[in-house]
Amino acid sequence: MIRARGLVHTFHTGQGKQRREVQAVRGVDLDVAEGEVVGFLGPNGAGKTTTLRILTTLLKPTAGTATVAGYDVATQPVQVRRSIGYCSQVGSTFSGAYAGDEVVDHGMLYGMSKRAAVAKGHELFDRLQLDGLWRRMPKNMSGGQKRRLDIAMALIHSPSLVFLDEPTTGLDPQARINLWQHIADLRTKEGATIFLTTHYLDEADALADRIVIIDRGEIVASDTADNLKAAVAGDLVDLEVAGPEQVAITRDKLASISADVVVEGHHVRGRVPRAGRAVPGLLRDLEGAGVALESIEVLRPTLDDVFLTLTGRSLRDAEADAAVADTDLDAGGPGPDEGGPGGSPAGASAATEEGVSA
Ligand SMILES: Nc1ncnc2c1ncn2[C@@H]1O[C@H](COP(=O)(O)OP(=O)(O)OP(=O)(O)O)[C@@H](O)[C@H]1O
């Protein structure tokens, strides 16, 4: 469904002495098979949206090639747009129109008859729990309702491949979980292939068959969440003991099965690959050495642990770095890329952003 090779995108910002290059995407390869749900995970500024905009034909790559639903993004953009649904980060609804009219108009832009668009629109409103909101303006909807309306817009022409850019950002926990269920249904009920960007670890974990992690414009991992966790991080074993002598013995024993032992007060911690197998032997050793444990905790690795192992930074630190970098960039002022295809209102859909109907 998606095949990308060596995608690069460089933005130019500022002018004259302030002119700077931002290498947003630096050689991205991607393969997404039909029916897969792929979570594209990375901190703020990692290059997720830029990659998505290239794949949805909203931005031309500086280098590299990509085919989406069998069509080349550079030479067959109209065919690509016809085959995909795209839900941008800020949505695509016009707040002053009725929700139902928006969805129908959107379908008609794709060449659907009014009758077919109305029928499909009602079906989507039912399925996405928007019943009763056909004649409500998006500005009078809750965040979760608006997001579900954006998804209805993206699905009106029954695309087989759907791109969702940070679908749940800004929603409260209950609305997020509700939307997850709808996204999961897209695959099971519509048979859609889904490519979604997120910087929420739990979202990627809950929804995606496969997780592709991007950092500073480069793909650093691609696998199932379970494999990523098993291969990169190991389980965190936290042993609490009574006194300094016991701490020293425990540290040495844990160091025999863990490469990164840390002592904090009476706690001795370290990552242990497949702890379930290794810990019983460790406990026997400790008992033999006269160590009485106060407590033991074994924590499964998280995707943040995976990110930390791969990049040396936690996702949260990476987001803070990106915020600082963006502040520096802002000081350089707007450049020629701003307002181009990449800088145009992200609210418009793939079909309408450049005024092209499918
Ligand atoms: N129009 C633009 N002009 C200049 N730089 C840009 C432009 N759009 C994005 N960038 C920069 O490119 C880099 C990648 O941005 P991108 O929006 O792709 O990241 P992201 O992973 O989607 O982040 P977020 O999670 O915050 O949406 C960032 O450093 C960003 O500041």
From TrEMBL:
GO terms classed as biological process: response to antibiotic
Segments forming domain ABC transporter: 2-241
InterPro entries the UniProt entry points to: AAA+_ATPase, ABC_transporter-like_ATP-bd, ABC_transporter-like_CS, ABC_transporter_ATP-binding, P-loop_NTPase
Annotated spans, Disordered: 324-358
Chief location bin: membrane
PROSITE patterns per UniProt: ABC_TRANSPORTER_1, ABC_TRANSPORTER_2
GO cellular component, one term: plasma membrane
Record membrane topology: Peripheral membrane protein
Keyword Ligase: no
Tree of life domain: Bacteria
SMART domains: AAA (SM00382)
Keyword entries, A-Z: Antibiotic resistance, ATP-binding, Nucleotide-binding, Transport
Biased composition (Low complexity): 346-358
A family per Pfam: ABC_tran
An MF annotation (GO) of this entry: ATP hydrolysis activity
Skewed-composition ranges (Gly residues): 332-345
Compartments in which it is found: Cell membrane
Similarity comment: Belongs to the ABC transporter superfamily.
Name used for this protein in its record: ATP-binding cassette domain-containing protein
Organism: Nocardioides faecalis
